[in-house]
Amino acid sequence: MNLLTALAIGLLFAAGIFQILRRNLIRAAIGLVLISNAINLFLFSVGAYNGIAAAYANATGQISDPLPQALVLTAIVISMGGFAFVLSLLYVISTRYKTSDSDQVTGLKN
Amino acid sequence: MPHVLILPLLLIALGVFLALLLRRAPLTNPQAGWLLAVFPFAAFLTLLIAYGQAHPQTFSVPWMPALGLNFSLYLDGLSALFGLIITGIGTLVVIYTGYYFDGAHASEHLQHANRKSAITNHQSSIETRFFAYILLFMLAMLGLVLAGDLITLFVFWEGTSITSFLLISYKYKDEAARKGAFKSLFITGGGGIALLAGFLFVIHLSGGADFQTVLASREILTTSPLYPVLFSLIALGAFTKSAQFPAHIWLPEAMTAPTPASAFLHSATMVKAGIYLLARLNPALGNTDLWFWTLSLIGLTTMLVGAYLGAKQNDLKPLLAYSTVSQLGVLVALIGQDTEIAFKALVISILAHALYKSALFMSAGIIDHETGTRDLRKLGGLLRQMPILFGIMGIAGLSMAGLPPLFGFLAKETLLASATHPSLPAVISTVFPLTTVLAGALILFQAAILVWGTFLAPPADPKHPAHGHDPKPGFWLPPALPALLSLLIGVTPVEPAFLANFLAEAAKAAYGDKVKVSLALWTGINVPLILSLVAVSLGLALFWQRNRLRPALMALLPNLTVNALFDGTLRGLDRLSKTATRLQGGKLRVYLSIMVLSLGGLLVLFNGLPFGFVLEHQSLNLTGLNVLRLFALLMLAASALLSVFLRRDLHAILAVGVVGLAVAVWMALEPAPDVALVQVVVDILSTVILILSLTLIPRALRLRAMEFTHKQSRPGLVRDALVAGLAGLVMMAVTLTALETRPRLSVVTPFYAENAKPLTGAKDIVGAIVVDFRAADTMMEILVFALAGLGIYTLLHYATRKAGVHSREASAPDLPPHTPLGVHNLPTSPLLHVLAYAVLPLAFVLGITHMMYGHDQPGDGFTAGVIISLAIALWYMLFGYYETRRKLAWLNRNTMIAVGLTLAVLNALGGLAFGGGLLAPVDYGKMLGLPLPPGFALTNSFLFEVAICLTVMGAATLILDNLGHPREDDPEAEAELDAIGER
């Protein structure tokens, strides 16, 4: 199972990197979402316990580790905020440089 | 009283400040000079008193105790010798400076500046800048020789580099001055870096930076395998500073400094810094083969090169500059020796050189000042006009030539005695005397043409003879004093015992053992005297044949200078940086590839690849895999790959949305319902935001961008795929290692699990962690999220605004009400409108339930905020921006953010007030005895949830608002964009 988890995270990460390397900046933004998903999943998976019950006080059986869950929970919301910010940058770039091709965004002023 | 040691430095620092204050003082330059000279003179006296009190003595104050760094001073014979020369000659130079900038020369100097102001403000045109610089230079140099440890020394060492740069570039409007200053800073500054590295090695090996420790660890230092490295580094620093061949090229160009600075720089400071350092470290690092051969060879080469180049000069200042180079070579060669006589010669040479060179430089400046030229081809016949100056230059020149009965003679005799010392090895024992005699002859030749050409020879150009007359006494006094001293030390019938003892102390500090110094000129007929006679005869013969010799010298290899090497190095550096810049072609993708590859490479380099690890831990065991997990996995993989291969951006975005949902399924199976819930709603909101932002980018651009998404060259695609694949593999390896090696015992989790209910009243442990145990984290997090929203608002409203265009808020078009147009201005179905009307209140109910019961069930403030935002997003999608704003006018996002954040802070303070600590749990409901429905508790956790919800909602709405805002119609820009898209 661990290997499968690692495989999925690796695949997600690779897809994200590949997208980020596209000239099309929209694709780069997509790549960012994929990467943040991969990272969140990674953090989420490396908790100390793999439980069989959700982390509730009255749960029966081994609960899954709530700490990384809490951390990932905040991370998800934060990555959305950061991602939205990137998108607005994308808009700024497209109006200033009149392109959404990262290869044409070369100068510092335009 | 050890504090007396800091006084000289403080006095000169005081002088610097006073010099700066003199700008508006009603003084002439000479008056200012006399006034400011008080400070170096007082420093001279203090130094003398301190030396008389005790030597060696130290002074130390902690500087950075954590790093073991002190600011410490150290005074012994060697530092006293240098310190007294610096302050003594410094006093004379400051007086001299006043006269140098007086009258005609001053106004000439100011001709670059505003002439009018120079005339009207003539009274106040004190050269405060120069006075301040030269005193600052003196301060740096004095600190250097008084420094008690290597780090303090280094700080002052760099100080001399910088202040000399300021002095050399003083006439910065002159290109030669700027070039000379740059060259000197480049060479000495570069040497300084090497020096620092060398010092760090020494400190590392000897275990301390102070001189007592360093000088006591000779054994460790010289036997260490690092010795050649640290020696080379320190020697590089000292050689560049002391203008040793081939780094001597900066010294003649430093002549662009005003003459007082040159006189000071050559006789007492800067170039002597390297000599001082080598002499200071000789007991610790010297007396090895490497030391002996390097210093001897470099020193002798410099001695000869300087003497030869000096003989070619016509200008008085470069001529003197090259003779300084030659003399510095002598000093370095002497430090390389391991004989008592060499160190006797060293201290005598240092003093003799300082005396005659300062006198000669200041005199050259007077000649320049009075006649307007320093060129030997224009000077001549000045004896009658300037008899006093002739006297000064004559005496100093005789000392430079090394003729009896002057002090310089003694310097040359002792030098020759060390050159013929029987302990020298085979090659050096012939080369050393030979070089010394040859250089001595050339120096004598220079001294002779200097004095002859200026005063005695008939005017070189009889039609325009140089005019001049002896200046005011204050002007010639500063050069006269050292010249007179050169004579007095030589002719005094009774040997000045205090001077001999003083020099012996200095030599002892440099040699590391007792050195006997006598100042008797006559030591009988011996080898040095005979050699001296040979040198004098040779020099006189050269002088006799001067008219034939000089043209020959001029013709000999006129272009052979090391400057070509320097210029070549600079050009090479330029080319190198150009090549390096070519790598940064402006393609962000290339940078990213490099970053990803290097990061992956570093990870692999330091941790290796877990191949063996995988096999060892039987990672292929598939316990825990069930149909649902397999489904999530396949969904994840398939949609991730789809997002790569789908051609249209919109489809790719939808695929990414599916990836997020697959992640949510994965999380739900963990089981982690809270996270899964947040992941679902955030994923949907992200997708909506992405689609909205698509509308921001003009269609033409998007189509074009979509085209080249897949129309990429095959090698480029393969390269990117490889980079991505490698990155994925590294990530996979990291994950696998983390999963396999993670600790199975958590320290904090059991605490949270046990205390969630009793302490916070929440059954949901994750929720308890978020809003209670780690509430401060969460507060920061909502702040960040709010800032993201506000940042987007700022970016879209101000960064993209053209100059002159004001707020876009006011530009709502006069649309008839109830004409909802959705995304892309497309009409939307009324059925969906009904849905939207129904969804918004439902979302509020759902959100409030989440907040009220979140502590016992999945869901919390985040979820609530995002769910309500999603309902609002639906409105934006269906009704369009204006209609939504009109209908939901009560929905003020800025207020929501403000209220949310304020509530969060107040709530935290409430914990402090009622719960005994910031963010401590408080049950307000129980406190006030409110009748509340079962399962709901009015705690500060609940209030925090509300705060989170409000902030997230506000920020998310802000984001939606701005990204969903239709852009202003700018026909011109649209047309332009369309044209770009079609190209």
Question: Which features does this protein show?
Answer:
heterodimer, A: 110 residues, mainly alpha, Helix Hairpins, 3 helices, 0% strand, elongated, B: 983 residues, two-stranded antiparallel sheet
Topology:
The complex is a heterodimer of chains A (110) and B (983).
Chain A: H1 2-20, H2 25-45, H3 66-96
Chain B: H1 7-21, H2 29-53, E1 57-64, E2 69-75, H3 77-100, H4 103-109, H5 115-120, H6 128-146, H7 150-168, H8 175-206, H9 211-216, H10 218-223, H11 227-241, H12 250-253, H13 259-267, H14 271-285, H15 289-310, H16 316-336, H17 340-371, H18 387-401, H19 407-419, H20 426-456, H21 473-491, H22 497-511, H23 527-544, H24 546-555, H25 563-582, H26 588-607, H27 611-616, H28 627-645, H29 649-669, H30 673-694, H31 699-710, H32 714-741, H33 749-760, H34 765-773, H35 775-799, H36 830-853, H37 861-887, H38 893-915, H39 924-928, H40 940-963, H41 971-982
Antiparallel strand pairs in B: 1-2
Helix pairs in contact in B: 1-2, 1-6, 2-3, 3-6, 3-13, 3-17, 3-21, 3-22, 6-7, 7-8, 8-11, 11-14, 13-17, 14-16, 15-16, 15-20, 16-17, 16-20, 17-18, 17-19, 17-21, 17-22, 18-20, 18-21, 19-20, 19-21, 19-23, 20-23, 26-32, 28-29, 29-30, 30-37, 31-41, 33-34, 34-35, 35-38, 35-40, 36-37, 36-40, 37-40, ...
